[in-house]
């Protein structure tokens, strides 16, 4: 059995991977962590763009900072980097279809992607979706390349949580599936 001192004396350089971790194992383990679901929107040159994102987290209260992680080389990553701004729309329990629609790889782009989805354009030109629990309009402050993803740290410059949605549960994601909280 390892002693406490032996454990605490380990430095980051000694904590090398003792066995190979497959992407499947990593996905399976991370899939046990329940998250909410958002649609991140931004203004692209050819019109509005949106993608389903669950890597959203609050980062700082003063100043108000949030973070999202986007796959390096993804269209959304390029659009967000070019726009320097994006909006996070937090989905409610009844919006799984919307979450699936904006995660589909072959979905239409530009205005066609938002056809039939009630929305308005926010200050940055990013769509603010109607009927979501809340939204945050953000300006990118810092990007960090981390493995095969890019971390976007952004400052919130406007936000709203519709009081009419206070009693409605959020849409959740667990083990690769949308989950409806009763
Ligand atoms: C629930 C859920 C959460 C997701 N979260 C992320 C995420 O945080 N970052 C990311 O890069 N992709 C995420 N994806 C995958 C993207 O939505 C998907 O790959 C999309 O097609 C990317 O669009 P793009 O090619 O326009 O960037 C998620 C998918 C689902 C269903």
From TrEMBL:
<dbReference type="InterPro" id="IPR002563">
    <property type="entry name" value="Flavin_Rdtase-like_dom"/>
</dbReference>
<feature type="domain" description="Flavin reductase like">
    <location>
        <begin position="30"/>
        <end position="180"/>
    </location>
</feature>
<dbReference type="InterPro" id="IPR050268">
    <property type="entry name" value="NADH-dep_flavin_reductase"/>
</dbReference>
<protein>
    <submittedName>
        <fullName>Flavin reductase family protein</fullName>
        <ecNumber>1.5.1.-</ecNumber>
    </submittedName>
</protein>
<dbReference type="InterPro" id="IPR012349">
    <property type="entry name" value="Split_barrel_FMN-bd"/>
</dbReference>
<dbReference type="Pfam" id="PF01613">
    <property type="entry name" value="Flavin_Reduct"/>
</dbReference>
<keyword id="KW-0560">Oxidoreductase</keyword>
<dbReference type="GO" id="GO:0016491">
    <property type="term" value="F:oxidoreductase activity"/>
</dbReference>
């Amino acid at each position: 059995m390892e002693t406490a001192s032996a454990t605490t004396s380990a430095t980051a350089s000694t904590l090398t991977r003792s066995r190979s971790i497959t992407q499947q194992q990593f996905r399976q383990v991370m899939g046990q962590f329940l998250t909410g679901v958002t649609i991140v929107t931004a203004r692209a040159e050819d019109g509005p763009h949106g993608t389903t994102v669950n890597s959203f987290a609050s980062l700082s209260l003063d100043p108000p900072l949030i973070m999202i992680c986007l796959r390096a080389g993804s269209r959304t990553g390029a659009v967000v980097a070019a726009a320097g701004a994006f909006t996070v729309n937090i989905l409610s329990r009844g919006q799984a279809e919307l979450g699936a629609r904006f995660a589909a790889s072959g979905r239409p782009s530009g205005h066609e992607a938002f056809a039939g989805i009630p929305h308005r354009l926010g200050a940055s030109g990013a769509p603010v979706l109607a009927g979501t629990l809340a939204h945050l309009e953000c300006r990118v402050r810092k990007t960090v390349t981390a493995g095969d993803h890019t971390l976007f740290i952004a400052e919130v410059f406007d936000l709203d949580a519709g009081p009419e949605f206070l009693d409605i549960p959020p849409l959740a994601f667990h083990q690769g599936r949308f989950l409806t909280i009763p």
